[in-house]
Amino acid sequence: MKVLVAMDSLKGSLSSRKAGEAVREGILRARPDARIDVRLLADGGEGTAEVLIKSRDGKRINRKVTGPFGTLVNASYGYDPDTHMVFIDMASAVGFHLIREEEKNPMTATTYGVGEMIKDAVNRGGRDFIIGLGGSVTNDGGLGMLEALGYRFTDGSGIPVGRGGQALGKVERIDVSHVIPELAECTFRIACDVENILCGPKGATYIYGPQKGAETEQIKQQLDAGMRHFADVSNAFLGTCCDCKPGSGCGGGIGYAFFGYLHAKGESGAELIMRETKIGEAMKGCDYVVTGEGCLDAQSVMGKAPVRIARLAKEVNAKVIAFAGSVTKESKKCNACGIDAYFPIVRGITTREEAMNPQKAYENLADTAEQVFRLL
Fold first, then answer.
1. How would you list the strands of the sheet with 72-80, edge to edge?
2. What is the pTM assigned to this prediction?
3. Residue 322, strand partner residues
4. Concatenated DSSP letters for 71-123?
5. What is the mean pLDDT of residues 120-147?
6. Residue 72 β-bridge partners
7. What is the pLDDT of residues 266-294, one digit of tens each?
8. Residues whose CB is less than 8 angstroms from the CB of residue 349 and which lie 6 or more positions away in sequence, other chains included
9. Which of 37, 101, 97 is nearest to 67 (CA)?
10. Between β-strands 152-154 and 173-175, what pairing exists: parallel, antiparallel or unpaired?
């Protein structure tokens, strides 16, 4: 039996690497003779930079940056000095793993640390950027990131608007006189597999705001109205209109800042990773392809990594199995997108914290994989 394993990370629990190792362990318990190829997978969220660093033989740069709520956090990014390419996960600076559940607050969370990473890389000579936009707790339209790069946003009286989602509705003036000049020499590609626009019912706030702490209609309406105002002021200033571009709602609206202010090009994170790692070639001759992520739901069929893996696997006639920390009723749509069968790994009544404990998640994933492959 030949199996290729390409698990996305289980957010808050297991990295792509650890998830793949758990699946391998479970399969080998059931089929010690199986030939298993574990590949790293990411879709623009956590782990994207790690995969690119390894594929390009780049260097990991560690530094402290401003976290989502102002305190310094340990972040890292990849840099290839030979090609001047830079690989950044915005989640490294503003990800869910940096805060406790009760700390979520999209009104004050800032992307300033993302801008600090970009600025640090520019100072080292980085010029070509690939940036993963998934996994952030922010909803500030990229305002914080732009501030770190030298943009100044003030109200009608010239007073700085502050940081976080609460600042967006106050922006009236934009000053570019302090923007670092090297940005003009840089190119940006943003890797993200969601296509939401910036505002409205299908925008950043209404779709992803709740998981970042925007639980009430009042907060969602206030944030979305602020995002709309920020886009209107920015569009007038920039002479462009990027807020309806697919992907502008990525990362709490930071996609809009990249498109409008930094002239970035969007790219599917999963497709970028699959191309860099030549994963399609590795699938040839496989009986089974195993993939998965933290939660299989309606968003999964909107181009996220497991479904893209499944479509690729079908080109070589491999059966596709998916594992997830949790599944929803909408997960059934995944069957029509190439996933032959999917399985939740939680194995009993438990709390969310217990289920997401890395050791427990590893055990659950390995045990589930074992039982599925015993049947196969």
1. 59-66, 72-80, 85-89, 128-132, 187-191, 265-267
2. 0.82
3. 291, 342
4. SEEEEEEEEETTTTEEEEETHHHHBGGGS-GGG--TTT---HHHHHHHHHHHH
5. 96
6. 66
7. 988 888 888 888 899 999 999 999 999 99
8. none
9. 97
10. antiparallel
Residue owning tokens 């296509």: 195
* HSE-up of residue 223 (Cα within 13 Å, Cβ side): 34
- Enter the tokens of residue 260: 């409008």
- For the record, the structure tokens of 317 come out as 């006639």
State the chain's maximal CA–CA distance in angstroms: 72
189, two tokens: 């590609």
Q: According to the model, what pLDDT value does residue 303 have?
A: 67
Phi, psi of 287 (to 5 degrees): -80, -40
Residue entry with tokens 């009608």: 156
Give the number of other Cβ atoms within 10 Å of residue 278's Cβ. 11
Half-sphere exposure of 305 (CA within 13 A, CB side): 36
Measured between alpha carbons, how far is 315 from 75 in angstroms, rounded to an integer?
38
Which segments of the chain does DSSP mark as H helices, in order? 16-30, 48-56, 91-94, 112-124, 143-148, 204-208, 217-238, 250-262, 269-277, 279-282, 305-314, 352-356, 358-375
Distances in Å between the Cα of 16 and the Cα atoms of 6, 178, 226, 336 are 8, 39, 35, 24
Q: Distance between CA 247 and CA 256 in Å, rounded? A: 8
Average pLDDT score over the chain:
93
Among 185, 105, 188, 104, smallest CA distance to 145 is for 188
Q: pLDDT at position 275, please?
A: 86
Render pLDDT for 159-192 as a digit per residue (tens, 0 to 9). Answer: 999 999 999 999 999 999 999 999 999 999 998 8
Residue with tokens 């910036």: 198
Q: What is the rounded CA–CA span in Å between residue 161 and residue 4?
A: 50
Report the number of secondary-structure helices (H) and strands (E) in the chain.
13, 13
Pairwise CA distance, residues 369 & 290, whole Å: 9
Give dist(CA 276, CA 256) in Å, integer: 25
Residue pLDDT, tens place only, 294-304: 988 877 776 67
